[in-house]
Structure formats: structure tokens, C-alpha cells
Write a structure and sequence with these properties.
Layout lengths: L1 H16 L4 H23 L18 H36 L5 H5 L2 H20 L13 H28 L2 H19 L22 E4 L4 E6 L1 H10 L3 E4 L6 E2 L4 E6 L6 H8 L2 E4 L8 H15 L7 H19 L7 E3 L5 E4 L5 H15 L4 H16 L4 H19 L4 H24 L10 H7 L1
Parallel strand pairs: 3-8
Antiparallel strand pairs: 1-5, 2-4, 2-6, 3-5, 7-8
Helix pairs in contact: 2-5, 2-6, 3-5, 3-6, 5-6, 7-10, 7-11, 10-11, 10-12, 11-12, 11-13, 12-14, 13-14, 13-15, 14-15
């Protein structure tokens, strides 16, 4: 039972951070309980209403005033909630049509929007929970303090509505959208790739015995691999004395009945153990940013591709996307890729988990934009600048060489469509990038730009 609960709890915690269900529901329940509890305490301890100014409630024994105020606030809040939902639907529709349907996830995860829905619905729940306490029979009672808190909540809702409209006006800006996706992607990189490449190490070679017969286990459901619990796989492999090879990486789609992983020796597996191993995989209908770095890159690429399409023709937006893609790639190449061979004890390979490589992420980030921007000199120049920025922060000769190869493709594609004067600018940037590669190959030194300490930078300024 505990093993089944762990994936459920992980999914629930991720849903808490993203979605219009969990956080607004919890806020609504909390405020509703607060309304019921405060009115009950006020009836038990009448001294609680003594701090309320008499100007608000001249007659403390007339429940009709309290009933009218609570009912009016509740009805007004529901009207505001309908307006908020209309604004949200308009924003989501606009973002989906103008940018990409895949970026809707970032809007759904927006905490300001979740708190807005939660506070408005919670104020309604507060008023409805406190309303039954304002009664004329069997003895008149007016929850004065409770009604005062409801009035304060109403004022807070008005202020929050103004803030929400301001926030939405900024949230639909493409610069804001792309920056938010890039920040979320960097957080994922920091979580799954915490080791800086400056502290890189070469793990000792561990032999992997491929002679044993492996049992291929198919996926029970169709969907994208959103999360792989490596710790749980390693623990199960050690406990069951298995060797597990994951066949699809995070972000890949796995149809039901297609191989998900293989395990050996075959005779140690049964249906119960296979279910335990499958529970380490979170598979769903949509990709998420739990472990999927490539998904964040794809969202930004989609926005950039739509921007340079003939129907939109917005190269400035494409340039913004390229800048943010370069930011993500710089963070990625500065970290050590997670170890694919998981061992326990250190000399025994238990689990093999594939991860996306720097070359694959570079292709995802720049290849489509390069292809469709071959006739746009401005976008192509910015692509080369992004590649040069990445090379300036990376001392790995293999990655720098991959950057040079992609720069050659950019220049070759533009040469066929642009004039000699324009392509000369591209060749100069390409030559600078090749010079970096030649220096790395000749010296083997780290070409990352030297970092100046804060004190020295202050003196230099």
C-alpha cells in the first residue's frame, strides 16, 4: 500500500503547484471553516463583538442587518468570480492561438491566478458558512465580528481584483511568458543536474553484464513518461536482486503494449514485482516539467516558430525566444548530466536510465528555427550569437564542436537565400565560433569567461 501511495503523493504535490483545483479548493475550504468557526465562537463568547465600532452596527440585536450584508457580499463575489473566469478563458484562448497550446500549462500553474480564485471563492464560502448564524429565532443573534471580517474580505477582494487585472495584462506579454518558461526550465535543470561541471569527474568504468536474458516489460497505459523515480527503481532492483534497463527516457511517448523497461534475470520477475517496478514511472496524457527539460525548450521553440511564420511575421518575438533558449542551454551545458548507471553497491550496476544529451537538446532548441529562419538575416544572426554565447561558457570541446557544426548549417542555409553582403556578417560570427573550437582543441583549456568577484567588479566599475 505504501509503495502505491508514493507515486500518488508525488503527483498530488505537483498538482498542488499547478492547477485550478487543489490550491483554490484548499483556500475556499479554509475560509469557509473560518466563517463557521468564528460565528460559533462569537455566539459562545459575545465579548468578541465588543471591538466592532457601533457605527457599523448600531443595533447589535437585529440579525437582519447581518443577513443583508452577508447575502449581498456572497452574491457580489459570485458575480466577480464569473468575471474572473471570463478573463481567464479569454487569456487562455489568446495565449493558445497566438503562441502555442503547450504554454497553457504555465498559465495554469500561475500562483496569482490560483490565489485569486481561492480568495474569491473562499469569501463566498465564508459568507455562506456564517449566514445561518444570523437568525431571529429562537433568540435574535447577529454575528457582528464575523460580518465585519466579511466586509474586510470584500474590500480585500476588490483590491485583489485590481491586482489580478494588472497581473494578467503582464502575463500575456510574450516576454513575460518566455521568461517564465525559461525560469521554470532552469529550476528543473538545477533539481536533476545539481553538479556544476567545474567539479566534473570521470566515473570509474563499471562492467555491465549483457549475457543474462532480460524480460521486456511493456507499458500498461499509453502516455508520456513524466517522471521516473530513480531512487525507487534502485531500491527495488537491490531488494529483488534485479538489473533494470529503462528503454524510454523522460518525455518520450510510450503506447500501451510497447516496451517500457527490461529486467534480468528473468526468473526473478512475477506479476506483483512487475507492478512494483511500473509504479516507479509516472505516465500521463501530457508532458510536464517534473523532469522533462526538453518540454520547456519545446514550448519556447513553438512560440518562436509561430512568430517567424509568414502569417505572423514577428522576428522580434523569435529573437526573444532565441535569447531565452540560449539561457537554458548555458545552464544545461554548465552542469554534469545525471549518471545513467545507478550502482548499489558501487561496483554493481542495478539500473540504467537514459538522459537527454546536450547535442539532442541543441537540435531541439535551434534546428527547426534555423530551418524556417534561413531567409531572415536578423534571426539567423541572433542564432549564431546564441551559439557563441553558449560556447563562451562551455569548456567541453565536444559541445563546442557541436555548436560549430550547427553554425555551419545556419550559414549554409542562409547562403542559398540571402545576398553576399548579408551572408558575410554570418560568416564573421561563424569564424569567431570556429576560432573558439580551434583554441579548445589545441590547448584543451577551459574557455569559459573568467568570473570576477563582487569586490573586484565594484572596483572596476
Amino acid at each position: 500500500m505504501t509503495q502505491r501511495l508514493l507515486p500518488f503523493l508525488r503527483t498530488a504535490l505537483y498538482a498542488l503547484r499547478g492547477g485550478f483545483l487543489v490550491r483554490p479548493l484548499l483556500i475556499s475550504i479554509a475560509l469557509g471553516l473560518a466563517g463557521a468557526l468564528l460565528s460559533s465562537l462569537e455566539e459562545t463568547f459575545p465579548v468578541l463583538s465588543a471591538w466592532v465600532p457601533a457605527g457599523l452596527f448600531p443595533s447589535r440585536t437585529d440579525p437582519q442587518v447581518a443577513q443583508t450584508i452577508l447575502a449581498t457580499i456572497a452574491a457580489s463575489i459570485m458575480t466577480v468570480v464569473s468575471i474572473v473566469f471570463a478573463i481567464l478563458l479569454m487569456t487562455l484562448t489568446l495565449a493558445s492561438m497566438q503562441f502555442s497550446p503547450r504554454i497553457l500549462l504555465s498559465f495554469v500553474k500561475d500562483r496569482v491566478t490560483q490565489w485569486t480564485l481561492g480568495i474569491f471563492l473562499g469569501t463566498f464560502a465564508y459568507c455562506m458558512a456564517a449566514l445561518p448564524s444570523a437568525r431571529a429565532l429562537p433568540h435574535p443573534f447577529a454575528p457582528v465580528a464575523t460580518v465585519t471580517c466579511a466586509m474586510l474580505l470584500a474590500v480585500a477582494c476588490v483590491a485583489w481584483l485590481i491586482f489580478f487585472i494588472h497581473h494578467i495584462s503582464q502575463a500575456i506579454s510574450v516576454n513575460h511568458i518566455v521568461d517564465r518558461i525559461a525560469r521554470e526550465t532552469e529550476i528543473v535543470i538545477d533539481e536533476i543536474m545539481p553538479d556544476d561541471q567545474r567539479l566534473s569527474y570521470e566515473p570509474a568504468g563499471v562492467p555491465f553484464d549483457d549475457n543474462k536474458r532480460e524480460l521486456v516489460v511493456d507499458s500498461a497505459i499509453s502516455g508520456y513518461i513524466r517522471y521516473i523515480d530513480n531512487g525507487r527503481l534502485l531500491e527495488l532492483a537491490k531488494t529483488l536482486k534485479l538489473r533494470i534497463r529503462v528503454l524510454r527516457r523522460v518525455g518520450h511517448f510510450v503506447p500501451a503494449g510497447v516496451a517500457l523497461f527490461s529486467a534480468s534475470p528473468e526468473e526473478r520477475l512475477n506479476e506483483q514485482r512487475i507492478r512494483q517496478l511500473r509504479s516507479a514511472f509516472d505516465i500521463g496524457p501530457t508532458r510536464t516539467l517534473q523532469q522533462d527539460i526538453e518540454f520547456g525548450v519545446i514550448q519556447i521553440v513553438d512560440i518562436g516558430l509561430k512568430a517567424i511564420s509568414p502569417a505572423v511575421n514577428d522576428p522580434s518575438t523569435a529573437i526573444t525566444c532565441i535569447d531565452q533558449l540560449g539561457r537554458i542551454l548555458i545552464r544545461f551545458v554548465s552542469r554534469n548530466v545525471p549518471v545513467s548507471l545507478l550502482c548499489d553497491p558501487p561496483h554493481v550496476v542495478r539500473v540504467i536510465v537514459p538522459w537527454i544529451s546536450a547535442e539532442s537538446l541543441l537540435d531541439t532548441a535551434f534546428e527547426q528555427i534555423r530551418h524556417y529562419a534561413a531567409s531572415d538575416i536578423v534571426v539567423s544572426l541572433r542564432l549564431l550569437r546564441a551559439l557563441d554565447d553558449i560556447a563562451s561558457t562551455c569548456g567541453d570541446a565536444r559541445i563546442v564542436e557541436a555548436l560549430v557544426v550547427r553554425a555551419r548549417r545556419i550559414v549554409a542555409g542562409c547562403t542559398e537565400r540571402l545576398g553576399a553582403e548579408q551572408t558575410e556578417k554570418l560568416r564573421r560570427r561563424h569564424s569567431a565560433l570556429e576560432a573558439r573550437m580551434n583554441t579548445v582543441e589545441a590547448t584543451g583549456h577551459d574557455l569559459r569567461e573568467p568570473r570576477v568577484s563582487a569586490s573586484l567588479r565594484t572596483l572596476a566599475d
